[in-house]
Design a protein that fits this description.
Layout lengths: L6 H7 L6 H9 L3 E3 L2 E2 L11 E6 L2 E7 L9 H5 L2 E3 L3 H13 L12 H14 L1
Length: about 130
């Protein structure tokens, strides 16, 4: 267990971001909040910090329960934080899937006929 770890390193170590550089960029863009305040990547993580991570359209909320500085297995990483994300936020992911019509990759743009069919489907939902 480490005593002082930068937030960008911690976010990477607990697998909230794929790379440390992505975690650093997200901190710089203001998408990582600690106790409601945007933080720099160099901020030190402390136990019981409440971290909000903005990955649109969802605001994920975590409580720090352990401090690690090296990337570990997913099972160990999940023990280092408590997921406090509300169900309403998680439901935004399901809503997003229902709004957009998925097309198979490589099928190209819809034809006029396809577009009319898509518009009819959307009108029926409203």
């Amino acid at each position: 267990m480490e005593e002082q770890v930068r937030i960008d390193k911690w976010l990477w170590a607990v697998r909230l971001y794929k790379t440390r550089s992505i975690a650093t960029e997200e901190c710089k863009k203001g998408r990582v909040l600690v106790d409601g305040v945007p933080v720099k990547p160099s901020r030190v993580v402390k136990l019981d910090d409440k971290i909000v991570v903005r990955k649109l359209p969802v605001l994920y909320t975590y409580k720090v329960t352990g401090i690690i500085s090296k990337r570990v297995s997913a099972q160990i990483a999940q023990q280092q934080y408590e997921d406090m994300t509300s169900i309403e936020e998680l439901n935004k992911l399901k809503i997003q899937d229902t709004i957009f019509i998925r097309r198979d990759k490589g099928t190209g743009r819809p034809t006029k006929r396809d577009r009319r069919m898509i518009d009819k489907l959307r009108e029926g939902e409203e």
